Amino acid sequence: MSKSIKLLVGALALTTWQSASAVILTGEFSGVITNSQGYGLANGGANGETLTGTIWIDTEAAQLRDECSQSQYNCTRDTDYNDKWIDINYSFLGNTYSPDSPQYTYSYDGVWAYDQYTSDNRDFIQILEYDYESNSSNYAYDYAYLYIYDWINDIVTSDNLADISTLSFNWQDSTPGNCSASAGQCGYFHAYDYDNNTTTSYINANLTSLTLNAASVPEPGTMALFGMGMFGLYFSRRKMKRA
Protein backbone atom coordinates (compact mmCIF):
# COMPACT_ATOMS: atom_id res chain seq x y z
CA MET A 1 0.00 0.00 0.00
CA SER A 2 1.43 3.38 -0.97
CA LYS A 3 2.20 6.02 1.65
CA SER A 4 -0.53 8.26 0.23
CA ILE A 5 -3.17 5.53 0.54
CA LYS A 6 -2.06 4.77 4.11
CA LEU A 7 -2.36 8.48 4.94
CA LEU A 8 -5.87 8.60 3.49
CA VAL A 9 -7.01 5.49 5.40
CA GLY A 10 -5.59 6.87 8.65
CA ALA A 11 -7.36 10.18 8.20
CA LEU A 12 -10.66 8.44 7.46
CA ALA A 13 -10.34 6.31 10.58
CA LEU A 14 -9.73 9.32 12.79
CA THR A 15 -12.66 11.32 11.44
CA THR A 16 -14.98 8.32 11.73
CA TRP A 17 -14.13 7.10 15.22
CA GLN A 18 -13.51 10.35 17.06
CA SER A 19 -16.40 12.72 17.74
CA ALA A 20 -17.87 14.89 20.46
CA SER A 21 -21.38 16.15 21.14
CA ALA A 22 -22.78 19.39 22.47
CA VAL A 23 -26.21 19.24 24.08
CA ILE A 24 -28.43 22.07 22.88
CA LEU A 25 -31.52 22.88 24.92
CA THR A 26 -34.37 24.49 23.03
CA GLY A 27 -37.73 25.48 24.38
CA GLU A 28 -40.92 27.41 23.86
CA PHE A 29 -43.10 29.20 26.38
CA SER A 30 -46.31 31.18 26.42
CA GLY A 31 -48.18 33.23 28.96
CA VAL A 32 -50.60 36.04 29.67
CA ILE A 33 -49.22 39.53 30.34
CA THR A 34 -50.23 40.84 33.76
CA ASN A 35 -48.22 44.07 33.96
CA SER A 36 -46.65 46.21 31.23
CA GLN A 37 -45.05 49.58 30.61
CA GLY A 38 -43.27 51.10 27.63
CA TYR A 39 -42.66 49.33 24.32
CA GLY A 40 -44.48 52.23 22.68
CA LEU A 41 -47.64 51.46 24.64
CA ALA A 42 -49.49 53.27 27.36
CA ASN A 43 -48.93 51.97 30.87
CA GLY A 44 -50.72 48.63 31.06
CA GLY A 45 -51.38 48.72 27.32
CA ALA A 46 -50.34 45.09 26.84
CA ASN A 47 -52.10 43.68 29.88
CA GLY A 48 -54.16 40.61 29.05
CA GLU A 49 -52.31 39.99 25.78
CA THR A 50 -50.65 36.68 24.94
CA LEU A 51 -46.86 36.50 25.15
CA THR A 52 -44.82 33.78 23.46
CA GLY A 53 -41.11 33.09 23.48
CA THR A 54 -38.23 30.76 22.73
CA ILE A 55 -35.19 29.59 24.69
CA TRP A 56 -31.84 28.36 23.38
CA ILE A 57 -29.01 27.09 25.62
CA ASP A 58 -25.67 25.58 24.56
CA THR A 59 -24.69 23.37 27.49
CA GLU A 60 -21.25 22.73 26.02
CA ALA A 61 -20.26 26.39 26.43
CA ALA A 62 -21.94 26.70 29.81
CA GLN A 63 -19.93 25.76 32.87
CA LEU A 64 -20.81 25.27 36.52
CA ARG A 65 -19.21 28.04 38.56
CA ASP A 66 -17.75 26.96 41.90
CA GLU A 67 -18.86 30.09 43.74
CA CYS A 68 -22.46 29.28 42.77
CA SER A 69 -22.40 25.76 44.19
CA GLN A 70 -23.85 25.69 47.67
CA SER A 71 -25.78 23.23 49.73
CA GLN A 72 -29.16 24.30 48.34
CA TYR A 73 -28.48 25.46 44.79
CA ASN A 74 -26.08 25.54 41.88
CA CYS A 75 -25.79 27.88 38.93
CA THR A 76 -24.40 27.44 35.44
CA ARG A 77 -22.55 30.39 33.92
CA ASP A 78 -19.73 31.04 31.49
CA THR A 79 -16.44 31.13 33.39
CA ASP A 80 -14.60 33.45 30.99
CA TYR A 81 -17.65 35.42 29.74
CA ASN A 82 -16.76 35.13 26.06
CA ASP A 83 -19.13 32.44 24.84
CA LYS A 84 -22.61 33.11 23.55
CA TRP A 85 -24.46 30.19 25.12
CA ILE A 86 -27.91 31.41 26.14
CA ASP A 87 -30.66 33.20 24.19
CA ILE A 88 -34.21 34.25 25.07
CA ASN A 89 -36.62 35.83 22.60
CA TYR A 90 -40.15 36.98 23.37
CA SER A 91 -43.02 38.33 21.28
CA PHE A 92 -46.33 40.10 21.86
CA LEU A 93 -48.62 42.30 19.79
CA GLY A 94 -46.74 41.35 16.62
CA ASN A 95 -43.27 42.43 17.80
CA THR A 96 -40.28 40.32 18.86
CA TYR A 97 -37.68 41.38 21.41
CA SER A 98 -34.44 39.89 22.69
CA PRO A 99 -31.73 41.14 25.07
CA ASP A 100 -29.03 39.79 22.76
CA SER A 101 -25.40 40.45 23.39
CA PRO A 102 -23.79 40.42 19.93
CA GLN A 103 -20.41 39.05 20.97
CA TYR A 104 -20.41 37.25 24.27
CA THR A 105 -22.33 36.27 27.36
CA TYR A 106 -22.28 38.61 30.33
CA SER A 107 -21.50 37.48 33.84
CA TYR A 108 -25.14 37.81 34.84
CA ASP A 109 -26.31 35.30 32.24
CA GLY A 110 -27.00 31.94 33.73
CA VAL A 111 -29.25 29.11 34.78
CA TRP A 112 -29.91 28.63 38.47
CA ALA A 113 -31.28 25.39 39.88
CA TYR A 114 -32.40 25.91 43.45
CA ASP A 115 -33.37 23.16 45.85
CA GLN A 116 -35.30 25.51 48.07
CA TYR A 117 -36.79 23.13 50.61
CA THR A 118 -35.31 19.65 50.55
CA SER A 119 -37.82 18.40 53.09
CA ASP A 120 -40.94 19.12 51.03
CA ASN A 121 -39.60 19.25 47.47
CA ARG A 122 -40.09 22.94 46.68
CA ASP A 123 -37.66 23.89 43.92
CA PHE A 124 -37.26 26.49 41.21
CA ILE A 125 -35.19 27.03 38.08
CA GLN A 126 -34.26 30.48 36.77
CA ILE A 127 -33.04 31.15 33.22
CA LEU A 128 -31.59 34.65 32.67
CA GLU A 129 -30.17 36.55 29.68
CA TYR A 130 -28.67 40.00 30.28
CA ASP A 131 -27.24 42.65 27.95
CA TYR A 132 -25.33 45.81 28.89
CA GLU A 133 -23.96 48.67 26.79
CA SER A 134 -21.97 51.67 27.95
CA ASN A 135 -20.20 54.74 26.55
CA SER A 136 -19.10 58.16 27.80
CA SER A 137 -22.58 59.68 27.78
CA ASN A 138 -25.00 56.80 28.02
CA TYR A 139 -25.51 53.35 29.41
CA ALA A 140 -28.29 50.92 28.84
CA TYR A 141 -29.19 47.39 29.77
CA ASP A 142 -31.97 44.95 29.17
CA TYR A 143 -32.63 41.46 30.37
CA ALA A 144 -35.20 38.71 30.35
CA TYR A 145 -35.69 35.76 32.64
CA LEU A 146 -38.04 32.92 33.41
CA TYR A 147 -38.82 31.55 36.85
CA ILE A 148 -40.04 27.97 36.84
CA TYR A 149 -41.47 26.64 40.08
CA ASP A 150 -42.42 23.12 41.06
CA TRP A 151 -44.21 22.71 44.36
CA ILE A 152 -44.72 18.95 43.92
CA ASN A 153 -41.53 17.15 42.89
CA ASP A 154 -37.86 17.51 43.71
CA ILE A 155 -36.70 18.76 40.30
CA VAL A 156 -33.14 19.74 41.26
CA THR A 157 -31.36 16.40 41.22
CA SER A 158 -28.15 17.02 39.29
CA ASP A 159 -25.58 19.60 38.25
CA ASN A 160 -26.09 18.49 34.63
CA LEU A 161 -27.85 21.35 32.86
CA ALA A 162 -29.26 19.04 30.19
CA ASP A 163 -31.25 17.19 32.85
CA ILE A 164 -33.83 19.98 33.11
CA SER A 165 -35.07 19.07 29.62
CA THR A 166 -36.54 15.85 31.04
CA LEU A 167 -38.85 17.72 33.39
CA SER A 168 -42.54 18.08 32.70
CA PHE A 169 -43.96 21.56 33.19
CA ASN A 170 -47.73 21.21 33.00
CA TRP A 171 -49.23 23.94 35.13
CA GLN A 172 -51.54 22.48 37.74
CA ASP A 173 -52.57 25.62 39.58
CA SER A 174 -55.97 27.14 38.95
CA THR A 175 -54.16 30.42 38.31
CA PRO A 176 -51.05 29.70 36.19
CA GLY A 177 -48.08 31.74 37.30
CA ASN A 178 -49.41 32.27 40.81
CA CYS A 179 -46.27 31.04 42.50
CA SER A 180 -47.60 31.67 46.00
CA ALA A 181 -49.94 28.73 45.53
CA SER A 182 -49.47 25.89 47.96
CA ALA A 183 -49.53 23.13 45.35
CA GLY A 184 -48.89 22.61 41.68
CA GLN A 185 -46.37 23.87 39.17
CA CYS A 186 -46.15 27.46 38.02
CA GLY A 187 -43.82 30.00 36.52
CA TYR A 188 -43.56 33.55 35.26
CA PHE A 189 -41.63 35.64 32.75
CA HIS A 190 -40.12 39.09 33.27
CA ALA A 191 -38.33 41.39 30.81
CA TYR A 192 -36.88 44.83 31.54
CA ASP A 193 -35.30 47.43 29.24
CA TYR A 194 -33.54 50.57 30.53
CA ASP A 195 -31.83 53.29 28.47
CA ASN A 196 -30.27 56.15 30.47
CA ASN A 197 -33.58 57.28 31.96
CA THR A 198 -35.00 58.01 28.50
CA THR A 199 -37.02 54.82 28.25
CA THR A 200 -37.94 52.16 30.74
CA SER A 201 -40.00 49.22 29.59
CA TYR A 202 -41.01 46.05 31.33
CA ILE A 203 -43.28 43.07 30.86
CA ASN A 204 -44.55 40.56 33.41
CA ALA A 205 -46.44 37.46 32.33
CA ASN A 206 -47.87 34.42 34.06
CA LEU A 207 -46.71 31.35 32.15
CA THR A 208 -49.34 28.99 30.82
CA SER A 209 -47.03 26.53 29.03
CA LEU A 210 -43.37 25.63 28.74
CA THR A 211 -41.54 22.89 26.87
CA LEU A 212 -37.82 22.09 26.95
CA ASN A 213 -36.06 19.70 24.59
CA ALA A 214 -32.48 18.46 24.46
CA ALA A 215 -30.64 17.49 21.29
CA SER A 216 -27.06 16.32 20.85
CA VAL A 217 -25.24 18.17 18.08
CA PRO A 218 -22.15 16.32 16.75
CA GLU A 219 -18.95 18.28 16.99
CA PRO A 220 -15.51 17.24 15.71
CA GLY A 221 -13.25 15.98 18.48
CA THR A 222 -9.54 16.76 18.66
CA MET A 223 -8.53 13.63 16.75
CA ALA A 224 -11.27 14.23 14.19
CA LEU A 225 -9.85 17.67 13.48
CA PHE A 226 -6.39 16.09 13.15
CA GLY A 227 -7.84 13.58 10.70
CA MET A 228 -9.33 16.38 8.62
CA GLY A 229 -5.89 17.95 8.50
CA MET A 230 -4.47 14.67 7.22
CA PHE A 231 -7.09 14.72 4.45
CA GLY A 232 -5.83 18.14 3.41
CA LEU A 233 -2.23 16.91 3.44
CA TYR A 234 -3.16 13.91 1.28
CA PHE A 235 -4.87 15.99 -1.40
CA SER A 236 -2.13 18.63 -1.39
CA ARG A 237 0.42 15.87 -2.05
CA ARG A 238 -1.63 14.60 -4.98
CA LYS A 239 -1.79 18.10 -6.40
CA MET A 240 1.98 18.52 -6.09
CA LYS A 241 2.64 15.20 -7.85
CA ARG A 242 0.41 16.20 -10.78
CA ALA A 243 2.15 19.55 -11.19
What is the structural class? mainly beta
Question: How many separate structural domains?
Answer: 2
Q: Give me the strand/helix succession.
A: HEEEEEEEEEEEH
Largest sheet, described in full?
A: 11 strands, antiparallel
Give the count of helical stretches: 2
Strand % is 35-45%
Query: Percent helix among the residues?
Result: 10-25%
Mean pLDDT: 67
Tally the beta strands.
11
Q: Gap between N and C termini, in Å?
A: 23 Å
Identify low-pLDDT runs: 7-19, 223-228
Give me the Rg, rounded.
Answer: 23 Å
Overall body shape: globular
Strand order of the largest sheet: 3-4-7-8-9-10-11-1-2-5-6
Protein name: PEP-CTERM sorting domain-containing protein
Pfam families: PEP-CTERM (PF07589)
Keywords: Membrane, Signal, Transmembrane, Transmembrane helix
Transmembrane segments: 220-236
Which helices and strands, and how do they pair?
Elements: H1 3-17, E1 20-37, E2 50-58, E3 63-64, E4 73-77, E5 86-92, E6 95-97, E7 110-117, E8 122-134, E9 139-150, E10 185-195, E11 199-219, H2 222-242
Antiparallel strand pairs: 1-2, 1-11, 2-5, 3-4, 4-7, 5-6, 7-8, 8-9, 9-10, 10-11
Transmembrane segments: 220-236
InterPro entries: Ice-binding_C
Domain Ice-binding protein C-terminal: 216-238
